[in-house]
## 1
Amino acid sequence: MAAPTITNGQEHFFPIIYEGNGAGQRVGRFVPFTDQATVANSCLIQPVAQRRLGRTPSSNGSGTILTFSAWVKRGRLGSISSIFIANDYASVGEALEFNTSNQLNYYCIKSSPGSYDWNYITNRTFEDTSKWYHIMVARDTTDSTQADRVQIYIDGEKVTSWNTETQAGSNLTGWMNQTTYENSFGNTNNASYVRGIGYLAEMNMIDGQALLPASFGITDTSTGRWIPKTVEPFPTTTTDIAVTVVSSGGNKYALDGVTQGTVTLIEGATYKFDQSDSSNSGHPLRFSTTSDGTHGGGSEFTSGVTTAGTPGSSGAYTQITVPTGTATLYYYCSVHSGMGGTANTQDQYGTNGFRCKFQDSSALGDDTSGKGNDLTATGMSTTNQTTDSPTQNHATLSPHSLYKSSNFTLSEGNLKATSTSAAGTHSGQGGMRIPNGGKYYWECEIDAGKDGMGIGIIPADTPTTSANPSTATLYLSNGSMRTDGSNAISYGSGVSNGDIMGFALDLSNPANGKLYVSVNGTYENSGNPVTGANPAPANPLIGDFRVIYQDGSNGYTPVYIYNFGQKSFNTAPPTGFSALQQDNLPETVKGISGLVWTKNRDSTDNHILMDSSRGAGQRLESTETGAQILINNSLNKFLAGGQQIGSYADMNRSGNSFVSWNWVANAGTTASNTDGSVTSTVQANTTAGFSIVQFTAPSAGNFTTGHGLSSTPEWVIVRMVNATSNWAVYHKSVYDASGNQFSASLNSNAAYSDLGSAIWGAGMTSSTLGLTSDGVVTAGAVSLAYAWHSVDGFSKFGKYTGNGSTNGPFGYTGFRPAWFLVKRIDTANDWQLFDSARNPFNPVDRRLYPNLTNVEAVGSTSDIFDFTANGFKVREDNAAINASGGTYIYMAFAEHPFVGDGTSPVTAR
């Protein structure tokens, strides 16, 4: 295969998801990763009978309200894997687990054996064994809103798309946090049900509170990743309590409308008692550890208390951040007796809460919350402690069927691979990509069957489970290197069972990578990774890689035990080489954002388009026709891999989720272009086929202006900048019967209409845009165009005809899409916009509408695609994407080209 022009689409286009913070932040995908808090250890729980952490509470905690939070790295796929369970294994029980379809399932059977009290099964599947997932359940069955009684969060995001959703009834209790059954974590306590989860880290159970994910994690705005934070087992935002004074046998405080209501204050949390209502005049609210405070012979409690303003006036409040260990409090009026009530205090973890950091290898179930609710570690030893964690995620082997033959079994947290067949050749691979640009070291012990071994590296995105791939570089038991799938090149002295091999892979030179192999600390063929001398014979080491291991067809069944840095290496890595874990990966190569298109997913804010030619902060909106406006403190700077934003709410509203689509231009550098009749100012990325064109239209009539690209544009969006204007959209292949070019408006759902020369003049050429000073672009108007042409493996601008079937058309793009915009043009329908960041898994159903301010739509079965390795497949018959006989145009940009680097195609998702 011929290598595509662009082998890494993210260098030229990338979507970003980020959370608004209402202040300033840098958003984008930047590597190396950053950590807000360090998780040092995890507990490895293999699928071995009754190997688990467990505790049977000595007394019942809250049966209705609890929060469970844990970081989980899956150890196997396609089998039930238990995160927690309390069960009789016959007819009743409560469990949080991955099911055989790799969906997350949380259920309880209690009030009626065999019938679910609640049952939640996600649509999403969890099949990435190289990633740490943050799994959190907040249960409060006392909540008056049934849909809010059980809330499940994955990586800080609330799950809203369900395969099964049986909601909990009012005030139902579960089995967790109760004395009836052992509360088991990571596996079951029944030998007939082996459900080892893999790795658990930073595990917390909070008795009596239903919290939000912000107590345990935070979105890293530099990478978009959900990362651990310093654990705060209490509400992390201030709770507002409205205070009024009512007459009820004398003046009394009413809290949120409840006269002398009792409130519960969690240690560490902050509560604001709002006294701005005029009825509070003359009644300052204070706290005491004595009922009725100073009127009852007590004194004022002031620790953690602040006051502001005068009661009864705007802005007046009494606020308390509850100190740890605070006794029961009472709120009272410092002037008048008999007005107050009780403020019960509750410790953070409650009766049966616990925190497991797995920091003591001899006591893996140690509760570090201070409550003393230790879990018992059964069937485990000190070796079940590992340094693999959410903040230092190490590579492991992949159990996915694309990357592991069924003739290999994985164990020990996907670090041990055992061949089970002496016939034929089988293989498996690592789960983590080894990215170009770094120097990496790992080890592997040959535990048995060394004469059948083949071990080394293979280009990433090369699924192989059986035959010898010609692209792999393999070290054989006799010391030879195999680089073409058959012939072996003499290299070293070979290995014996029990030997530990070291691999030093130098990809710091993207055009000339090198591999070095050692046996028990001595490099074969006098290789020297530090000086670059005598590397192993290898295929050209260009691009990303994975580890690969094989057995042979000579009757041997090898056993490999890998170490990617989860434990101490047998031999120290060479100087400059690092363990294969996420913090050691090189910075991702991305260009500087040139066009940034941002939308608030959670609010009805407009789609905002800013570009580095017009300058930071110059806002246009695809949903509006208004002229450009400078918005200070919005997009402050265009950065490599993202942008710096300020407090502007439409781009950074606190608590809202945003998506930003970024096209790389020319790092903000523009040039004057005189190719057309009108001089333009152009910022062009000729490699990616994208340019930003600025020009001033002449007097009425046709004109041309240069676009700076090397080919004729196939998709153009144009509008005036300094005046009200529609967004006119040109598509290369949409004409009427007379040959006139059709046009549509990005800000409208209208069908394409025949505007002929009213917009596009003489049309497009390889050097110029053909336009008319009429309609969308008027004489003397400062105007803007975004122009694209297709680039093999990166971008595609096409058209398809609907068939009205759920087995809809397939569109070949030559790449796996990262961004997909589609519009029906023969009748009125909204533009539909999808991307792989918001839709990391098929089906692709999260969509936004460039002509509408709507919040993100999700979960409907009416607008669904699959993104495939080489295009897209329509999966529904909705008129907006697949009416029978309907005509649709689309615009797509790549996540990965189908032909990869020109040697092997990528795989579907």
## 2
Amino acid sequence: MTSHRILALVRDVWPEIRAALNTPWETPKAISHAIFAQLRASRLWEEMKFDVAVAGSPDQHILCLQGDGQLMLCSPGISLTSHPFVSELVDELEVDFEEHSLSVAGDCLIAPLTEALKARLALPSVLLVSLFHPEMYPAARLTLGIAYLASYLRLRHLATVKLIDCQFDATVDDVLAEIRESRPDFLGVSVNFGQFDLMEQLLDKLYTEKAAGEPPVVILGNILPAMCYREILEAYPEVVICRKEGELSLAGLVRAGRDRSRWSQVPGIYYLSKQEKLVSTPPTYLPMEQLPTPALDTVPELFARDGVMTAEFSRGCQYNKCSFCPRSHKGGVWRSIPVTSMLQQWETFMQVFRHFGRTPHIFLADEDFVGVEDGDATVRRLTDFLDGARERGLQITFDASCRADQIFREGRDRDWHLQRGRLFNRCVEGGLSRLFLGVESGASAQLERYKKGSTVDEMISAIRYLSLLGARLRFGFIFFDPLMSVQDLVDNIEFLGRTDIVLPAARNASVEEIWDIVCSNHGQVMHEASGRPIYEDVSYMVSPLEVLSKSKYLYDLRQQAPQLISNQIDVSFARYRTDYAIPELGNICMACQYWVNYCFPIVYALKGLQKVSSDAEKQLLHEAISGHRYLGYMLIRSLAQAFALVDDKTVQHWEQAHASMEGHQEICANARKLVGDGQIDKAIISILMWYEEQMRRLMETVNEHASTLSPSKQQHWHSAYNGWATSSLVNTQALRMA
């Protein structure tokens, strides 16, 4: 095969090849098969021996044809000379390409196939696996961890990559079957909280199955291996653990191969040397301009299950000081991809939404989408993105997260607050559907322990400002911590019930007028306000603080009250079990955790369905979620009353703000008597039994109206509901507390 023959062949069917390369939701293997079929169908086809491969990320696919001493690279719509893979070949192997043009916008490069180039094109194989417990997270979403790793390796043409996302019904045995069949050189496994058992199952079988031959090199990533690397390496000395971000670590390991003597040059990993000594290599952070669009191989199955699309525009946290959040695996520097990359990803996502006929909505996984304080540049970055999306007709709505001090700070002047108000107003106009704020607490002392960097009054003014601007909000909340006081408990209940914080949007008011309302009421109760109670927008209201490995809170607790903390780490969640300084609060926390565990599967299913619903469907699901949150708010009130932690005046105040359900006062009075008699377990069980019944009635209502949902959503709902309905909060927990 000479270059002119294959070039003529490609030119003959280039429109069809170009169309195949412009399918970001297809795997490289599927695209290469489609292109080969087009080449065979050409009138210029002859019996030629050449390899067809597809490199690049979803928005930069490259056709690689190799054979008869030639390498041809073709791509639609981009300049190949600036592509990372091509740049490497030119800079490191000194490949001398001839440039050729293709009809209908295409770029083509041809070079002799030297021995060095052949060796570079002989790619290792990588299998990337994301583990999954369906009972913990039943709603499907694009799993970004393995998607970004795959895209980065493909962009630089470092490996052939296959993905197994276990949320799509794949089991550990399915992963093992794929390993036996395809014999990958490398196995990358993403292990999230609660998946330690699945990791053990996979590795135990992998390293004991002799018939499978030499196992692949295993690299474990995500938060759990990074935090529990010592425990994992002690049990599985063969594995490599990624310390921080995975792209450069995995790429370095792929280049190094099985030779452990070269692993010391791989950035950001833990492993055991041949002498069984722990080796920790320095991490290198990926320049964000090099972060590609995530691989979208799983999108067809994702949408078939009414899943949601996720993306990431930035990494890290600009604040980086919250005591409950371990930062060692994430890094302490906030970085963002360029605006041009943001817009390129938005265009790719819109192409995918249009192809599958889906409502265009993205859930941004950024910890803080506003980012580092950099004066006008902070505002310009987001406004340039929003303006660019509007100019290109990319009408995609999105959810995002930020900190309260991105919109309100006591130390900032009026001009700063007006600038931020205009920014968030522009975000709402440009598609911001919902904004997550990590409020965490309504108790001043607790916020100080959490080292949030904002006071309760600042949190309140931030929420008022955003809600008046029209932003829909949801909040993170950490109700309990081991050092909390009774006053913290009361303050949190009071805060969650307030209706003068989340205010109706001031549609006809200017940003200046809205700011004047917020400023004039800062630190004050707005008695005449009629907003939503905070608890209606809290994702998980009565959850405790997890004392995680490597967190500042763990250090503080060991300094202040070492008797409260276990010395043994729970490797399933990289956390330490704790007692509470006030035992009654520990009992209340325990009861609330039982409630959270019981409700989580069905509520997570509701929330997942709501994300992809509209109109009557969304209304049904929203009412169920709101009902659950009201029950959670009332539960914590009931427990506070049962343990006699509040006086009658406080209870009356709560009742005036949010009336309890029929039978509530009786169950509280009975539980309080049981506590007084020293029968704490029975008191807790009696309250939980009552709330379990309320929750069952609420979910039965959804089930009775499930016909409102689309057929696919009905199937998802019935699967989740039937599994949950067979569970029992009370029977299981009664046995534990007996």
